[in-house]
Write a structure and sequence with these properties.
The complex is a heterodimer of chains A (164) and B (679). Chain A is an alpha+beta fold and 164 residues long. Chain A has four helices and eleven strands. The chains are: A alpha+beta (164), B alpha+beta (679).
């Protein structure tokens, strides 16, 4: 039992402070690596599903498991972008909810210490985004740390929200 | 890992069910003697495992039943009253079931089995005393209510024994007086015949120790031992402070033991259970037992997992053999041969896995005998349950949803359907009423019919009640009988003015409808006044794999379950009509159907917009039909049904999803859901 715990905490340690960064539009975003299960390169056939918000592109077959995929561009209410060979699906798993995120392309895994991550600007300053959990700095670059939980909430789609 | 408790619950609930079947069978036909050995064996196993798990209440009850049956085995079945023993055993079974149910729900098995033990012991003593059966008092075989707190058992005893009354006081400050009193009862119960004690709920109710402190522990019993030895029996307990022992007069119990109100235990009427075991026969109940050695029990989750894996195997096999890269392999004979062999084996594997999950309806049907028996006794009706087709197999997941609906249907049939014996005599119907429970396979579905030969449904009364509740909007003359009868499936619908113990609240039929619809089935009620009612349940064989028709709409492929498709066809222009609101209708052989264009409905792009060019599929659900317009039919395929990802929630018109041979995910239409959609 003790071994398992140690192993777990070790795994947590190796994952802690690491972020997978990806590009959506011109911004670089990061998500905590512990949520990421895998990255699928290229876009495979997506089966459309009716009656869902437009950013839910449909479902895909991930080795026998069927998971929904979200277009992060559309999720952030940006313009739809043609998928190309750099487009990737990042499969994340949060509280047993497995979802694929379609992003323009995956950049790298970076380590950021807690002190390198600044809280998002105050909502009163006019900047408002519920999806951003913090702003990380790596050298001169700035990466927006995503709040995966908020990303998955159907905040603008109440009927689905109620069912879920 | 399965815990010991799980195994205990599983094994013993099976044992108890088996015991119940055996008892019911013996009661009906062969007499208790035919099954003594089996009952004895079950009780012995139960006692062993219960005492291993430290469930003393269960173990001690099993022990006393074992005593009873070992006596019967030793002394032969002469002179036995089957009905009494059955009542006794069945009431104990109910207790055991209840306790095991508690354990299953992770509660403590804290019921007090003592009243049952006492009933059994009384009966056993009575057998040993060799009294004539007919003189035995009623209360011996009255099933005791489950919680018999404060119960008083007034049982006259074999007359020849002197009767005593002992008033025991425990030493002050010894605490747990109730448990000490219980200890005394336990210690002396083999030596004397305990008739009664006050307070009587010593084992179950710890507050009874207060009463004992104040009034002492009052015990009435009879035995052949001299008074001095009895005194010694009591004094053995170091905490007994004082003992008043007195010899009793004959009528003592009725006069002196009134300090607590005697609960009224209605004596069960003696009724000749002339019910015969029909098709099921005594054989099948006992037959099951002998087969036990060849069965192992498997966790259902593992089976589900196996099922999923095989489903994926089927898909991946298709992905290999239909892989576009393999088009080059057309001339590779060896590969094609191997691939065919491969797919054959996989198909066989799939069939086997499916058959593992299939369970005959037998056990579910057999359970109904008990309900019929109990209701016969309570309602004073003479109903015979006829069972046929119990070998029909249904997926395990579905079977679990059938027990409750069948129970409600049988109750309804007996309570409402079957007339009272007097009424039946007046109508010239046979005194023995019949309730039929029938299962059959028909075109990929299983039908379960529950029919009775009772009064039938009262069409006018249902109509009036439905109107009162605003359930019907159409005019009377447009309503078919089926429409009206289906009202009784609505929640809270009851034409019954009086709520009885068994039915009348309008819940039962709702349970039936919702359970059956939950597994993708349908309920149809038909009735002939004066002749009886038939409820037929149509249920799918399995939930996991269905036959589906692949259809193409635009670029998307959807699956429509074959069971909801009536026909598919091309139509001509003159079949198309438009109603004043501009909705499209299709006229076909004098029937008019609404049209749902799937590409419109699901808002997907499609080039095929001409109704006469595409394919029309007539889909039906619950006797409602609709035309679905699709671009093309792609063929029929067995598909493995998977739930939609939780993230998407529930989508109307979509029942689930599956993987196609190409590896692509595809959606399965839910025809019932399409109807719900506001047009």
């Amino acid at each position: 039992m003790a071994d398992v715990k140690e192993e777990l905490s070790q795994e947590e340690d190796t994952q802690k402070g690491k972020f997978l960064t990806f590009l959506v539009g011109r911004e670089e975003y990061g998500i905590e690596i512990k949520y990421v299960t895998e990255i699928i390169g290229g876009i495979q056939a997506i089966t459309e599903v009716p009656e869902v918000p437009p950013y839910v592109k449909g479902i895909i077959n991930l080795r026998g498991k069927i998971i929904p995929v979200l277009d992060v561009n559309l999720r952030f209410k940006k313009e739809a972008r043609e998928y190309d060979d750099r487009t990737c699906i990042i499969v994340i798993d949060i509280y047993d909810l497995c979802v694929g995120l379609i992003v323009d392309h995956v950049a790298e895994v970076v380590a950021m210490a807690d002190e390198e991550i600044a809280p998002p600007p105050d909502a009163r300053s006019g900047f408002h985004s519920s999806y951003i959990k913090g702003i990380g700095k790596v050298g001169t670059a700035v990466k927006l740390i995503l709040d995966c939980q908020c990303l998955l909430n159907h905040d603008d789609f109440s009927s689905l929200h109620q069912i879920a | 890992m399965e815990s010991l408790l799980d195994i205990f619950v599983l094994e013993n609930s099976q044992l108890i069910e088996q015991l119940e079947q055996t008892i019911l069978c013996t009661e009906k036909s062969i007499g208790i003697d035919g099954a003594v050995d089996e009952i004895f064996r079950i009780m012995h196993t139960l006692k062993g495992s219960a005492s291993m798990m430290m469930y003393d209440n269960i173990a001690s009850l099993a022990h006393s039943m074992e005593d009873l049956f070992s006596h019967i085995r030793a002394n032969g079945p002469d002179n036995l009253d089957n009905s009494r023993i059955c009542d006794l055993v069945l009431s104990s079974i109910d207790f055991l079931k209840n306790e095991i149910g508690k354990l299953e729900n992770e509660q403590a098995a804290d019921g007090d089995s003592f009243p049952y033990i006492q009933l059994i012991e009384e009966y056993l003593n009575h057998l040993q005393a060799g009294e004539s059966e007919l003189d035995a008092p009623e209360s011996i075989y009255a099933p005791a209510p489950p919680a018999l707190d404060g119960g008083v058992f007034s049982t006259p005893l074999p007359e020849q024994l002197p009767r005593y009354r002992a008033l025991v006081f425990f030493s002050p400050g010894c605490e747990m007086e109730n448990m000490r009193a219980f200890g005394i009862v336990h210690r002396i119960k083999d030596l004397v015949i305990i008739e009664d004690y006050i307070p009587s709920d010593i084992a179950a109710n710890s507050s009874s120790s207060e009463l004992i402190k104040q009034n002492g522990f009052d015990l009435v019993f009879s035995c052949s031992l001299p008074a001095e030895e009895i005194r010694n029996l009591f004094i053995k307990d170091p905490f007994v402070d004082s003992l008043e022992l007195s010899v009793l007069e004959e009528e003592y119990p009725e006069t002196a033991m009134t300090s607590e109100e005697e609960p009224h235990i209605p004596p069960v009427e003696e009724r000749d259970c002339s019910v015969e075991c029909k098709e099921a026969g005594a054989g099948s109940g006992l037959h099951l037992v002998n087969n036990r050695g060849n069965h192992i029990s498997v966790n259902l989750q593992k089976l589900d997992l196996l099922m999923d894996l095989v489903g994926e195997l089927v898909i991946s096999q298709a992905m290999i053999s239909l892989n576009p890269d393999m088009s080059l392999a057309a001339q590779l004979d060896g590969f094609q041969k191997a691939a065919r062999q491969h797919s054959k084996i996989i198909n066989e594997l799939q069939d086997i896995v499916m058959s593992i999950r299939m369970v005959p309806l037998d056990m579910t049907f057999q359970k109904m005998h008990r309900i019929v028996r109990d209701m016969n006794k309570k309602l004073g009706k003479n109903v015979v349950l006829e069972i046929s087709g119990q070998d029909t197999e249904v997926d395990k997941n579905i079977i679990d949803h059938l027990s409750d609906p069948l129970m409600h249907l049988i109750r309804n049939a007996i309570d409402h359907g079957i007339e009272s014996p007097e009424e039946r005599a007046r109508l010239g119907k046979p005194a023995e009423a019949r309730v039929r429970l029938e299962a059959k396979n028909e075109s990929g579905d299983v039908y379960i019919l529950v029919s009775d030969d009772g009064a039938g449904l009262d069409r006018e009364k249902i109509l009036a009640r439905a109107r009162e509740r605003g359930l019907l909007s159409t005019k009377d003359r447009d309503l078919s009988d089926a429409d009206i009868y289906s009202c009784i499936l609505r929640p809270g619908f009851s034409t019954c003015d009086q709520v009885s113990e068994f039915s009348g609240r309008g819940v039962g039929m709702d349970v039936v409808a919702s359970n059956i619809e939950g597994v993708g089935g349908a309920v149809v009620v038909s009735s002939t006044p004066g002749q009886g009612t038939t409820v037929s349940l149509k249920i799918p064989l399995t939930l996991a794999i269905i036959n589906g028709m692949q259809v193409r709409v635009g670029q998307s492929i959807y699956i429509i379950p074959i069971t909801s498709i009536r026909e598919s066809l091309k139509i001509r222009k003159e079949n198309i009509l438009h109603d004043p609101e501009g909705r499209e209708l299709i006229m076909l052989r004098g029937q008019c159907y609404p049209v749902i264009r799937l590409y419109q409905h699901f808002r997907i792009k499609s080039d095929q917009k001409d109704l006469t060019q595409g394919i029309i599929i007539i889909a039906e659900n619950d006797s409602r039909s609709v035309c679905l317009f699709v671009d093309a039919l792609l063929g029929e395929q067995q598909i493995v049904v998977k739930a939609l990802p939780r993230y998407l929630g529930k989508i109307k018109g979509i029942g689930g999803c599956t993987l196609l041979g190409t590896g692509q995910a595809s959606l399965i239409l839910d025809v019932a859901g399409l109807f719900e959609q506001p047009a």
